């Protein structure tokens, strides 16, 4: 539910621009980007109707490659025109209660702006994979 880089921080990290940044500045920019992605994921969880407790305590992991073997890169998925400008990522959610215990949430689950076009679909991932 939003753009993950409204300040165009990734442009500052690209090869030509990043030469002007020291390691600490690069790390700070990456941290800002990660915080923004995490904020948007938690916002999407709340907008999907999950409680604030689940949204606050969920363990979130995201990356371009999938979590299941053989999964295509997220950037290679075809998307409707209105979603093409947004970055696509694979996300793993481990649901936790307020006391930190893992909790099961029945699925499948759809969250985010692309949930009506096949994006944002979550399915249970077996721990053995």
Description of the molecule:
The protein is α+β, with helices and mostly antiparallel strands and 129 residues long. Helices cover 31% and strands 11% of the residues. The chain has helices at residues 9-13, 15-18, 23-47, 52-57, and strands spanning 59-63, 90-94, 109-110, 121-122. The protein has a two-stranded antiparallel ribbon. A two-stranded antiparallel sheet has the order 3-4. The longest helix has 25 residues, at 23-47. The chain starts with 8 loop residues before the first helix and ends in a 7-residue tail after the last strand. The mean pLDDT is 85.
Please provide a brief summary of the model.
The protein is of the alpha+beta class. It is built from four helices and four strands; from the N terminus they run H-H-H-H-E-E-E-E. The longest helix is centred in the N-terminal third of the chain and has 25 residues.
Any key phrases for this structure?
4 helices; alpha+beta; 11% strand; two-stranded antiparallel sheet; 129 residues; 31% helix
- Taking all residues together, what is the mean pLDDT? 85
How many strand segments?
4
Report how far apart the termini are.
29 Å
Number of helices: 4
Task: Record the strand order, biggest sheet.
Answer: 1-2
Q: Give, in order, the helices and strands.
A: HHHHEEEE
Shape: globular
Largest sheet, in brief, is:
2 strands, antiparallel
Percent of sequence in beta strands: 5-15%
Low-confidence stretches: none
| Class from secondary-structure proportions | alpha+beta
Radius of gyration from the alpha-carbon trace, in angstroms: 16 Å
Estimated helix fraction: 25-40%
């Amino acid at each position: 539910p939003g753009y993950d880089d409204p300040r165009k921080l990734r442009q500052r990290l690209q090869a030509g621009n990043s030469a002007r940044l020291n390691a600490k500045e690069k790390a700070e920019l990456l941290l800002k980007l990660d915080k923004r992605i995490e904020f948007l994921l938690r916002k999407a969880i709340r907008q999907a109707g999950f409680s604030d407790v689940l949204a606050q305590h969920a363990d979130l992991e995201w990356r371009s490659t999938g979590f299941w073997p053989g999964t295509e890169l997220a950037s290679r998925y075809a998307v409707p025109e209105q979603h093409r400008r947004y970055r696509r990522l694979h996300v793993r959610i481990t649901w936790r209660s307020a006391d930190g215990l893992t909790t099961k949430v029945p699925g499948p689950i759809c969250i985010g702006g692309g949930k009506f076009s096949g994006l944002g679909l979550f399915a249970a991932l077996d721990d053995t994979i």
